[in-house]
Amino acid sequence: MTAEMTAEEFTERILGDAVTTMETMSIALGVRLGLYEKLADGPLDARGLAEEAGVHPRYAREWLEQQAASGVLTVDRDDEDPYARVFALPDGAREALLDPDSPAYAGTLPEMLVSVAELLPRLAEAYTSGEGVPYAEYGRTVRHGIAGMNRPAFRSGLAGWVAAMPDVEARLSGGGGAVLDLGCGTGWSSIALAEAFPRATVRGVDLDEASVAEAAEHAAGHGLSGRVTFTRGDAADPGVSGPHDSGPYDLVCLFEALHDMADPVAALRSAREVLAPGGAVLVGDEKVAPEFTAPGDLLERLNYGFSVLHCLPATRAEGAAVEAGTVLRPGTVRSYAEAAGYAGCTELPIEHDLWRFYRLDPA
User: Fold this and answer.
1) Sign of the CA dihedral 147, 149, 155, 160?
2) Average pLDDT of the chain to the nearest whole number
């Protein structure tokens, strides 16, 4: 428990948060206008950026100066002519903003947060009525924001996550096997699974029609259409596995999806029912504190922020049987697994900054 803040201290906190918010919005503006992409080709002054990106020189100058003042860009100063100042994008910022496969990538996050803020009037209505805000209403930017934040982890880490279950890894590496990816979003987890296990077939299932369509495009773009297929469906439906020739499954995955499901127990039960003998379920979800504490650490604050603004409203829009919110604690995962009929729920020794991983074994 920390000491209570004075009014002046709280005002100072709000001021600091406001500066951070405006700087995040300015980064989102740079992403949306492609300004960082132009700077990635080499240093530019205001007129050069304006010409390359198709923006007005005065706006280009102000944005460049703001980015330098906030520490995003570096600048070669020329105080006599502000339009002659040359600005550069450092390598670290370039990788974080423009390399979608880098583990440090965060380029979709600023625009995602701005898009959520645009829905505040709708969220206020939902909070008053008790209804939800459907996932589809959050739109393309939020969909791509979530996918963009998770894609690097899938592409670089997913093979290692499965390796934490040696028996399952052996099945997928040997004879091929089959994987069901529930809550697959735009497909990057399914693609990473297929790339990690070239003999396996992967079926991705998601409730969002736009995500499923994009997932199929992504798989085709990676030459995986023959082994990776996508279906629009509810993970809680008993027939989620699709045609009988697509299962049973050696591995069923739910990556950052269980907390978003309207009926997580039913989803886990459906996953258990389509497992092959000896198969297992792999759940990756938020790395929050084991119990509620206040004030919380950065991860706790991050996940409550997402929950208040996105995950809980989107889940309530589905007529939620259970309203987990983003803050899915280990004890809650274990209780879901027990209610769904699993004999074991084991936390796996996988290092990850944001997620915990659980292996679920049927009775």
Assistant:
1) negative
2) 94
